[in-house]
Structures are given as structure tokens and as C-alpha cells.
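Key result, reporting period 2: structure in, sequence out.
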């Protein structure tokens, strides 16, 4: 599933193309891509056609495109295999294309935003914008203190300037669950999925099953530092692509998979100490860690 770096790469690619662009035509090819929108395909098309976009924002794994002059936005979630692609006007249909939005941009001219999704777990929707609880900017890319209603319960992510380190430390101190489970809880911290949780815990030398409440302030600070470092490095390398399902808006894959130290490296030597990386079943997924560097206290 695309995590924060992958979604942020898509947001950055979309932002210049959608800022100030008019949605000249909207076509829904598959209504399954509107699972988060109860209005249906015809209403979705009519509501957006002729409206103008003002930018692209993100919180965690959610994207939204605020609509000019309205307290509404187009909200997107990539799910397991969703792709948001930029294509020249009139370009042929993409494989697994579900929705196409034809834009007229004041300087870039005509182009299309295509939402494609092989497994149909991703979605687009139109949602109302509501005030943020802390009166800070809704997310990365939107300075207004507003966020889509269906995203409001999602915690801020560690690359968000409004992320509260102190509140995060307090939240961990109240959790008896293993620290990795807490990192995957989107109401505590967003955007850190399975890949980057494993990588951050490896970098911080913390066992994934360590009870969150037992971590010292120093350990939590170290973990936050490593989370941010891992996410920033993944972002600089275009995200992690294990197959053709995750690509940026131009259809190009990321290459952070070559920089992984723990995730997906079962049986290979730990880059730090040489011990074989271990893989354990975890919440219908897997945890990858070094049994020597990340001893369970």
C-alpha cells in the first residue's frame, strides 16, 4: 500500500498541474472508484464540471484538491494499487482507468488527471471541508485551517509542521501495545505504514513488540528522528516501488527499495551487525527486524 512518501510524491507532482486549473470535463468509467462518495457517478461529474481547483494537499495517506470559492474538495485515497497520473489532453485510456478529469490550466493548457486502480480499493470523493481541531493548517500543501470531514479523524503525520512531538510522546506513554502497532494507528500518527515502521524501528534499534509505554523520552525522541529521516530519504528517492502498481504522476517508479535495511530482507545480513534479518507474522502482515540490534527488553 502506498505510504506517506509515495502519496507526497504524487501530491508534489499534481500541485502545479491543478493549481488554478478548471475542470472542463469529468468522466467516471467505474463507479467502484466512488466508494467514499454516496452521490453516485452522475452527481460527481456534474458537481465538478466547471469548478476550479486551487491546489493539492495531503495528510497522512489522504490527498485532497480544494475547490475555489467552496468549502469542498476532491478527496483521494490510493488504497492498495491506486494511481493518479497526469496525461496530455486526448491521451488514450490507461489500463484500469476508473475516472478521468480533463483540465484547462491557465499556463499549462489542456491536460488530464487519470485515476487508475487495479484492485479498486482506492477512491475519489467530494467532501466538505471542516475546521481543524487545533486551528492549524489542514495538511501539507494547504495553509487554510480546514480538512475534509472524512480525514478529520486522521492524526497529523511526522512531516507536517503542525505535528506535536510532545502529544505524541504522551500518547505512547498511555499505550500498552507494541510500539509498531501504535505506529500503524492512524489516530496517533499517520502516514507511517508497514514498510517505514520497520525501517524506522530498525534505525532506532527498537524491537517492534516493545511496549510503547515503556519507552523512555530519549527513545521516543530517537524514534521520531529516525521516522522523519527515513520518510525524507524515501521521499527524495521517489518512494518505494516493488512492482508496477506504485508510480508517480508521470508513471515512473520510486527506487527507495534499494535503500531498505530491514523490510523485505528476511534472512539477509543486517547492514549494521551482520545478523540475519528476521520476519515475524504481524497483524496479517509481517515485521522485519534484527534480533541482535533490536533486542526486546
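The corresponding designed sequence is given below.
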Amino acid at each position: 500500500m502506498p505510504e506517506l512518501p509515495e502519496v507526497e510524491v504524487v501530491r508534489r507532482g499534481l500541485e502545479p498541474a491543478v493549481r488554478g486549473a478548471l475542470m472542463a470535463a469529468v468522466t467516471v468509467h467505474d463507479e467502484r472508484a466512488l466508494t467514499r462518495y454516496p452521490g453516485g457517478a452522475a452527481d460527481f461529474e456534474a458537481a465538478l464540471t466547471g469548478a476550479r481547483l486551487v491546489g493539492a494537499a495531503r495528510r497522512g495517506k489522504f490527498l485532497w484538491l480544494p475547490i475555489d470559492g467552496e468549502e469542498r474538495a476532491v478527496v483521494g485515497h490510493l488504497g492498495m494499487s491506486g494511481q493518479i497520473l497526469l496525461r496530455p489532453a486526448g491521451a488514450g485510456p490507461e489500463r484500469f482507468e476508473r475516472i478521468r478529469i480533463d483540465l484547462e490550466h491557465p499556463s499549462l493548457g489542456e491536460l488530464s488527471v487519470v485515476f487508475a486502480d487495479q484492485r479498486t480499493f482506492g477512491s475519489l470523493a467530494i467532501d466538505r471541508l471542516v475546521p481543524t481541531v487545533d486551528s492549524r493548517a489542514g495538511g501539507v500543501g494547504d495553509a487554510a485551517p480546514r480538512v475534509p470531514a472524512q480525514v478529520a479523524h486522521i492524526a497529523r503525520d511526522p512531516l507536517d509542521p503542525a505535528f506535536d512531538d510532545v502529544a505524541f510522546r504522551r500518547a505512547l506513554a498511555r499505550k500498552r501495545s507494541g510500539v509498531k502497532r501504535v505506529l500503524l494507528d492512524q489516530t496517533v500518527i499517520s502516514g507511517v505504514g508497514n514498510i517505514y515502521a520497520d525501517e524506522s524501528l530498525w534505525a532506532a534499534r527498537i524491537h517492534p513488540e516493545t511496549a510503547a509505554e515503556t519507552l523512555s523520552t530519549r527513545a521516543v525522541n530517537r524514534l521520531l528522528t529516525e521516522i522523519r529521516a527515513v520518510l525524507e530519504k524515501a521521499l527524495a528517492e521517489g518512494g518505494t516501488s516493488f512492482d508496477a502498481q506504485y508510480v508517480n504522476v508521470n508513471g515512473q517508479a520510486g527506487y527507495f527499495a534499494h535503500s531498505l535495511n530491514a523490510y523485505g530482507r528476511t534472512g539477509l545480513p543486517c547492514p549494521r551487525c551482520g545478523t540475519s534479518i528476521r520476519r515475524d507474522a504481524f497483524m496479517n502482515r509481517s515485521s522485519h527486524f534484527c534480533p541482535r540490534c533490536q533486542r526486546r527488553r
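The longest strand covers residues 97-105. The mean pLDDT is 92. This case is discussed further under Risks and Mitigation.
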